[in-house]
Amino acid sequence: MTDEVAREAMEYDVVIVGAGPAGLSAAIRLKQLAAEKGGEIAVAVLEKGAEVGAHILSGAVIDPISLNELIPDWKERGAPLDTPVTHDQFKILGPAGAAALPMFLMPPLFSNHGNYIVSLSNVTKWLAAQAEALGVEIYPGMAASAPAYDDAGALRGVVAGVFGIARDGHHKPDYQPGMELHGKYVLIAEGARGSLAKVLQKRYDLCAGRDPQKYGIGIKELWEVPAAQHKPGLVLHTVGWPLDDKNGGGSFMYHWGDRLVSVGYVVHLNYRNPYVSPFDEFQRHKLHPEIAQYIRGGKRIGYGARAITEGGLQSVPKLAFPGGALIGCAAGFVNVPRIKGSHNAMKTGMLAAEAAFAAIRAGRQRDTLVEYEEAFRDSRVRQDLHRVRNAKPLLSRLGTFWGGVVGMLDMWTTTLLFGISFFGTLKHGKSDAAATEHASKHKPIFYPKPDGVLTFDKPSSVYLSNTNHEEDQPVHLVLKDPSIPIRLNLPEYAEPATRYCPAGVYEVLTDEGGSNPRFQINAQNCVHCKTCDIKDPSQNIDWTTPEGGGGPNYANM
Question: If phi over 0 gives left and psi between -120 and 50 gives alpha, with beta otherwise, what is residue 83?
Answer without folding.
Answer: beta
